[in-house]
């Protein structure tokens, strides 16, 4: 009887629709209250994200780091871990990558840039994994605190010992060597295919490998995972390290391809937006791609709102926040709704 | 640079940085005592700061009222979401954290230039380095301190306090149901009260002289308060002391920068977080809590 | 006292397919102590919980408002982080200032009545379990409601404590007209204390009489049924022991019971059952045997060697914890994934990157569903959507499947209907016939009689083998001692 799976799909669709509607209504309300032309803003939003080649490039440029930071949240979430400090790993690894790649020329510069970023991010969030498995500190709290620490640490170092004397009002590190720079075409760079590849690999690993099975089992019921002989503590640390590595890769790519140097200005919220991406993807690593593009579109559209309607700079973040709350609120109906749908079908 | 001026800068910084943290922490003691963990406080504080800045245009009292009411409403919404059968407290908290921060930044944009009436304050005149300096002592801080003492007393001495403590314990739901009370309602009330105190924090941020809203205002206050209260095991007087200590560390960094021109302010501002992580990392495991 | 009795009428309650109460009726006259007798699982706790409003009945009326009832549950309900005095105060309504002196004086008087010496300012979580129980009963007396329910009050008390408690109950019943309902599985205990005796068996009332009109034989017959003494279908005799024991437990001490030691050898083809009152270390023992907790002292050996790390099923050990759906399955994963759980885990990194053979796995799950005749949609259904009975059947089949050489099961029969119990018994017998050793940790003696050829008694963390010929009499003698 495929009824149950159909009920689940219907439920997912209904919740997605309800959340979108709720977020849309919220946006119209906020826009109206703050004096923006509410309905016109929707047109601007659409044109600014998908309406032209430029808009599309903007969307995919923003989506590129989100693929990786979204994965950095979605992957541990599959193991039942709410690691929400990708922002911290992102900036720390950006700094590590920029510093590592600043003093080396030649073929090794690029691997060094990426490697330093990945390692720094992995070590940074690995702390959360250890705190969780050895001390029972909730990973959401520790990773969030560490995100603040990371941004402050980067600010401190970049305003101090690592400051490039040539950077004036916005302090940054010295630019990375030319050999470490990734080519980019109007904002699009190697990070996009890399991010897509990472999502597909993650999908294969989570849904089609024995390792992924253990991961999902631990996320669904840690007691059952222990019952099946899985070392849940080690898995926790591994997932936090992996999360940090992914966010770190995003940070390193941002330095290598876009910013060419690191500074506190890199903390644009890609890490936090990654939480929303993971939330939309709901544990499906393939869906991270679509979710990253969607959130990237909000970022690009938010920019258009700012340019064309004089909307506040935080418009994109506002829409993301509304969507976030709407998804969490509507998500509470999951379960009872599917049962109701199934019961209704059975009555028919 | 004299030691006097450094001490003065430290005291001034403490009176500026301490009150928001103390207000939010005192209120969160109620929330955590009732067994709720409101990570969303980090988003509630900036929202209430914006509300205070907006309301403050009609008078400081209105600003405070708006912030308190808004904080209570937002935290109440959080508690409502958490009381639904299949919700995850932490996930709801993260949503409120991200959503609240965004809302504050969006609505607060453009409020920067508006002048606000400041909160009434007690002027402390301090003689240092041959000059007198005026330090403002906020009434909100005094109110929060009074509330901390009152909560400390009320949790032990009143029926309401006992019920609140019962709500936050394993087996509390059943025990409360046996005497005809609802754990859900108690937690809702306690979380809302915590939000109201977060509103005081936001009001202090936006209305304490010179006041106004700026991007990033209130960042770290909510998560700081939640962490402090967790470490203090929701004991209000301990939480006040910890919050004051945390604020003193940050103020010390600020004072060093003001008085000696040294860097390191960024590090001092997150040093409390590092200490909190160290404390949680070295403490004995406490099962059953977040 | 001439007040009307509290009339319980036709209360029925089912958990899934299992009926806990099948329409029971009582008259609880005020001013008296009513004894409620029954074996584990007879429905005593369910009845008391419904009367107290902690659970809703499917049918029937309780005849009393929950606000007029106080229940002291079997495992205690004091709040651990509050002091003794605060636990008194929190049970009375009122939001304002607590009149501590009055409460303290009254509490002290009630505690003295039960002969408890306790610091009123000590946290309840630090009390000795027996003292905590007495504090709870003192509080129940203090709250002074018309109907007071005590679930297994004597389980943790010694003889003088129990006598003092029952004397206090009688005084309160006489003075205030309170109706007390006291549950127990021990006949002599209630015979001494209660004025009227009621017996529940399998969710139905089998006897309800004044104390003097019921003989011990009547009560035993009502509690255990007439078919109790000869097992319905005796288990096969144990085969000759050959080779090393499949399972050996040597000098094992359980957490919380450091003095007692457990020794046990179980050979291929044997079926042993560990019986005893709940709370004597069953859960801890099961966790250690299942490899989920380290022993406090001593060792467990499988096939003469220490148990290997990782999934024990890979080494022929099937395990069925007491709530297998919560402890050994994932509700949000599919039936196929749960059925193939053991085959899909373990093996380190190299095997970890191997591809899962989904179609294969689903086909096998479908075959399993057909073989077990589970009335469910298919292998891709979510496990959490199955009925409780189907979940257990599926997990039993999973744990018995493959080349299982040792089967550990705790209360596998609990909550199953008669047909399912018969199927379970047959499956265990089949596993034995195939050379597996079976170890049950069970409470239902009827089931033990059908499924095991050796019976051991677990008491306070220690294990003693009961004589095979008359283990049931011996069990009752020891538990009632």
Automatic annotation (TrEMBL), chain A:
It is a multi-pass membrane protein. It is found in: Cell inner membrane. The keyword Acyltransferase does not apply. GO terms for molecular function: transmembrane transporter activity. Its main location: membrane. It comes from the Bacteria. The chain crosses the membrane at residues 12-34, 54-74, 81-104, 110-131, 143-162, 187-206, 235-256, 262-281, 288-306, 321-342. Keywords: Cell membrane, Membrane, Transmembrane, Transmembrane helix. It holds the Pfam family BPD_transp_2. One of its GO terms (cellular component) is plasma membrane. PANTHER family: ABC TRANSPORTER, PERMEASE PROTEIN (PTHR47089), GUANOSINE ABC TRANSPORTER PERMEASE PROTEIN NUPP (PTHR47089:SF1). This is ABC transporter permease. It comes from Candidatus Amphirhobacter heronislandensis. The lineage of its organism: Bacteria, Pseudomonadati, Pseudomonadota, Gammaproteobacteria, Candidatus Tethybacterales.
TrEMBL record, chain B:
Pfam families: BPD_transp_2. The keyword Transmembrane helix applies. InterPro entries: ABC_transp_permease (IPR001851). Its main location: membrane. Keywords: Cell membrane, Membrane, Transmembrane, Transmembrane helix. It is a multi-pass membrane protein. PANTHER family: ABC TRANSPORTER PERMEASE PROTEIN (PTHR43370:SF2), SUGAR ABC TRANSPORTER INTEGRAL MEMBRANE PROTEIN-RELATED (PTHR43370). This is ABC transporter permease.
From TrEMBL, chain C:
It comes from the Bacteria. Transmembrane segments: none annotated. PROSITE patterns: ABC_TRANSPORTER_2 (PS50893). Keywords: ATP-binding, Nucleotide-binding. The keyword Nucleotide-binding applies. Residues 6-227, 240-476 form the ABC transporter domain. GO terms for molecular function: ATP binding; ATP hydrolysis activity. This is ATP-binding cassette domain-containing protein.
